[in-house]
Structures are given as structure tokens and as C-alpha cells.
Amino acid sequence: MATEKSTVTASLPENPMLATALNKLEAAFDALDLNEGIRAFIRHPERELKVSVPIYRADGNIQVFTGYRVQHSSARGPCKGGVRFHPDVDLDEVRALAMLMSIKCAIANVPFGGAKGGVCVDPSELTKVELERLTRRYTHMILPILGKQRDIPAPDMNTNAQTMAWMMDTVSALQSESSTAITTGKPICLGGSEGRAEATGRGVVITMVEALKRLGQDPAKVSVAIQGFGNVGSHAAKIMSAEFKSKVVAVSDDTGGLYNPNGLNLDAICKHVDESPRHRLEGYSAEGTKQISNSELLTLDVDVLVPAAIENQITEKNANDIKAKLIVEGANGPVTHQADKILVDKGVILIPDILANAGGVVTSYFEWVQDLQSFFWNLEDVRSKLTEIMKRAFAEAWDMAQEKNTDLRSASFILAVKRIADAIEQRGLFP
Ligand code: GLU
């Protein structure tokens, strides 16, 4: 039986996301009374790959970037998870995110394990040609551990359908065959799925509405502030306002925020973002709408807060000032462990990232199934299957929280860890 503690868990790591994930993992182990062998199995990522990614810059010089791919668990199926390009990417962050993917896939009950990849780079400093070179070289470097039944990347922070198209094309070229199922989140013309682009935002809205139902609140009567107006935040804003008549009063991106207590004109804002050169909110103005900072947005007097930007936005410094009674984590890791505790103690209902933003990977699962079968579904099919899975996952997490008298994040971990532990036990160990 494995008794040795991992170096990443001997003391809590500095990376707040990894610390939160490991903390919740330990609590779930205790709640399930798992033996030390299974605990060690789940604590340790199965495989960690660090690669050097050299590319020619436009000036003809070579620059070397560092990339990672971490596969946390393949117990429940092929490893699955995004690839991010960001200057803060490091091994601990990718480890945390890979573990969260295993948990996320288990909560949604899609037949995947968890992985994550990333390159430490500021993509805004690269030209499109340089970005393509970086993506292709990184793909080549991690290809030994990828595979449509092994590990399937998807978009994450600063990566998108174009990135997935380049990755898929690189693998197809190297393997001399069309490998559409090797990535998800691709453009529709290359085996992407209808509804994948909006899926994470739609999932956020579905979980928000399910929570409001249980709290006896009408989605049409709530005010919502959304931090982050990228793929997740902008789709969530549009869907909750158009389909559920929720009042979106504030949105923000890295250029600042907009606030109108009577509700924002989302059509005008989206048009502005589409047409502005950097696709940002900056420069938008309308009567009754004032500029606010990202930190002001978080503490607005609203019913629902959706942090859908980046990690570690709600910390012990601002958690006490949060006024929303419901928080829906569109981003991965927006609330630190310390802040999570403060909010739960205050009675705030927090729908954790691993549940709230699972719509992306659920629709990645649909895309993978469609690619394997070369048979494609229409948008209505995708939306209704996504809704069914998200509602079921939310209900299971909610019921577990009631049963164990705990918060939704802890309950989601318990649910997921149980599924992963069951898979490990049923498979047994090779050799
Ligand atoms: N990057 C997304 C996430 O964190 C999607 C992953 C996927 O579709 O594989 O959930």
C-alpha cells in the first residue's frame, strides 16, 4: 500500500488553486473514509510532461517557451482538458487544473479523466504567425502522450477554435490521417460541434437557474454582475438575459467594467466589443451606464455574482464585502480557499467551478462522440442534451450537500471522488 506523501501534498503548496483543490480532496477522502492507498492514487497526477517550445520569432531569432501537459487521472476514461497560453502558467497551476478536470468530468459523469496543458507565454506579444508556430511546436512536443483514446485537449484561457484547428492539423499531418477527435472546441467546418462555443456560458446559466429554483427565486427578478466578458461571461450574459430575463447590471473585462442598475444594453455592448479593434469593453458609453473597476464589480449590491474571468479574484481581502447571495464560478478557481470559507460561513451559496463551468467539457464530450462517429447533431440536440446533463449534475451535487450537510463545493468533490475511487477499485492495478 502506498503510504508516501507526495511532495505536492506534504505541506500545502503556494499556488492557491492547488491548495484549494488538495484541501477539498482531503476533506472528500475523509467524508468517504477512503483508505490511504486510494487517497495517494488520487492525490498524485498520473503523468507530468514539461517541454521546451522553440520558435522562430518574426525577426528571425529563436525564442524558447516552456510548456506542460499534466494528466491527472485516466481512471474513468481518456484524459480531457484545455490548453492555456498565459504568462503565469507553471507546473503547480497546470497540476491543479488537471485535477479539477478529473473532478469536473466525474461530477458531470462524462467518461473522461482529467488533464490540462499550458505554455508560459503572453500571446498578445506574438503575431498570428508566431502563435501558430508556437501552437504547432507545442503540439508536436506533447504528442507522445496525446491520442483520441488517451488525452484530448480543448481551448482554455487565451486559446480558441483556431488553436484547436492548428493542433488537430499538426497531429493529422504527423500521423498522415485525419485526426478530428484529437482535440475538441474546433471550428464547425473541421469537426467542431454546434453549441460548443456557447456551452460553458450556457452551463453557467443552467446551474444558476437550478440554484435559484431551489432558493425559491425567480430568474427574471434577479440582478447579476458578471466579471469577465470573454467566451464564458459574454455568452452567460446573453443567455440569462435573452432566455431567462435576468437583469445583467454589470460586466467587465481587463479594461474595466460597466454598471447600470437598470440593466445593461447587452446587444449594444456586444456590438461594440465585436467591432472594437482589441475586442474589449473600453470605449463603450451609454446614458445611465457608468464605468467601474473590476474590484468594484465584485462587491456590487446584486443578487448573483458570476466571476468568469481569471483565478484568485475573491480572496480573504474582499470576501467580507461581497453582497451577492449566490456566486456562480464561471472561471476556474476565482475564489481562494480562505475566501470560500468566509463566504460559506456568511451563508452565501457558491456553485463551484467544477460544476458551474462543466458545460464546456460536457459539450466537448459531445464533439468527441460526433467526431468518432463522423455523424453530427443539430444545435437543438446539443442544447437539450447539455441541459439534461447539467441539471442532473446540479441535482446530484445539491442532494449530496443536503445529505452531508455541507456546501456545494465540498459535496461536488465527494460525489466526484467517490466516482473516481470506484473506477480505480473496479479496474484494479496493472500489472
Ligand atoms: N478548458 C475547459 C475547462 O476548463 C474545457 C475543457 C474541455 O473541454 O476539455 O473546463
Widest sheet, order of strands: 9-8-7-6-10-11-12
Largest sheet: 7 strands, mixed
How many strand segments? 12
| Weakly predicted, low-confidence segments | 1-9
Secondary-structure element string: HHEEEHEHEHHEHEEHEHEEHEHHHH
CATH hierarchy: architecture of the largest domain:
3-Layer(aba) Sandwich
- Structure class: alpha/beta
Rg on CA atoms, Å: 21 Å
Mean pLDDT: 96
The coarse silhouette is: globular
CATH topology of the largest domain: Rossmann fold
Q: Which class of the largest domain in CATH terms?
A: Alpha Beta
The percent range for helix content is 40-55%
What count of domains describes the coordinates?
2
End-to-end distance? 15 Å
Task: Write up what this structure looks like.
By secondary structure, the protein is α/β, with parallel strands linked by helices. It folds into two domains: 43-192, Leucine Dehydrogenase, chain A, domain 1 (Rossmann fold), CATH 3.40.50; 197-356, NAD(P)-binding Rossmann-like Domain (Rossmann fold, 3-Layer(aba) Sandwich). Helices cover 45% and strands 16% of the residues. It has 14 helices and twelve strands. It has helices spanning 16-32, 36-43, 91-108, 128-142, 161-175, 196-214, 231-244, 266-275, 294-298, 337-345, 353-356, 359-373, 379-404, 408-427, and strands spanning 47-56, 62-73, 79-85, 114-119, 151-155, 223-227, 247-253, 256-259, 290-292, 304-307, 326-328, 349-351. The strands form two sheets. Strands 9-8-7-6-10-11-12 form a seven-stranded mixed beta sheet, sandwiched between helices. Strands 1-2-4-3-5 form a five-stranded mixed beta sheet. A hairpin with a 2-residue loop joins strand 7 (247-253) and strand 8. It is globular, with a radius of gyration of 21 Å. It starts with 15 loop residues before the first helix and ends with a helix. The model is unreliable at 1-9 (pLDDT under 50).
